[in-house]
């Protein structure tokens, strides 16, 4: 009884997919990477090749919003969902004009370790965190650190709302003894007096932030691992990018060969899974892989690795980051 069955116009799906990809400023390479398919597979899809599996076609369609995102929730996704919900609960308690609400956008890093992790009492775990960038680069006092409500003494949280006139951005982080971490902060560019909020995205600051986060992860891994080195699963999420122009704002005297363009995509997620033992040797390479999808939404598809190398080295000049690189600790 298929007389009322309508044939699927697959070519129209392909045309609409390409239209949306162009509207979002994605390249074929970026689209393929986000869909987790090869470029030849992407090209075959665009030709209407019937050898492309339905699963891979759905992955391609999902990137541009043609299919609802497939929710395969794992433990880290649950952790991040709770992290964001907790942050929202905290900002809901603040005045409407409080800077912690971050109305123009924000970024957050989350990661977890795979492998055998030592057992620590919560106060011991907090002591380890105090020697990492979670605390030393951002905190103004210990009063902002506390056990996470309903976490059964498994996790610690910290929030910071700057006093009026302070140039420090609001931030929030959580850390769990099982080896899960998340840190959220707004964009420093939105505090600039020379540009209105949500108008620019600095091309240098994200590189340094990612490098510092990876150095921190390496430091923590060496102290949390029971015996064998741990594996790191790291994710960077940027929200509120649509309409922003890529600008070298934090260091206008520096010459960088990055073209400036506006992002048509509001959210970018970049992930990497690596052995923690490679973080010191291949830090610049890892940072390069994480930042590349972010630059691509601004139209930058080819940039110098030496640029990343220079900024990663600058991030290592921070005294506390230098201390985290000491193998003897």
Task: Give the topology.
Blueprint lengths: L9 H14 L4 H8 L3 H9 L6 H10 L11 H18 L13 E9 L7 H9 L2 H4 L8 E3 L7 E6 L10 E6 L3 E7 L13 E3 L2 H20 L6 E9 L5 E3 L19 E9 L7 H14 L8 H12 L2 H6 L5
Parallel strand pairs: 6-8
Antiparallel strand pairs: 1-5, 1-7, 2-3, 3-4, 4-5, 7-9
Helix pairs in contact: 2-3, 2-4, 8-9, 8-10, 9-10
Order of helices and strands: HHHHHEHHEEEEEHEEEHHH
Q: Give the class from helix and strand content and strand pairing.
A: alpha+beta
The overall strand count is 9
Backbone CA Rg: 21 Å
Major sheet summary line:
7 strands, antiparallel
Helix content: 25-40%
- Hey, roughly how much beta strand do the residues contain? 15-25%
The average pLDDT score comes to 82
Straight-line N-to-C gap: 73 Å
Q: What spatial order of strands do you see in the largest sheet?
A: 2-3-4-5-1-7-9
The DSSP helix count reads: 11
Summed up, the domain count is: 2
Low-confidence stretches: 135-143, 163-167, 319-329
Shape: globular
Identify the quaternary structure here. single chain
Short description:
By secondary structure, the protein is of the alpha+beta class.
Supply the key terms:
329 residues; alpha+beta; 434 Repressor (Amino-terminal Domain); 7-stranded antiparallel β-sheet; 11 helices; 9 strands; disordered C terminus
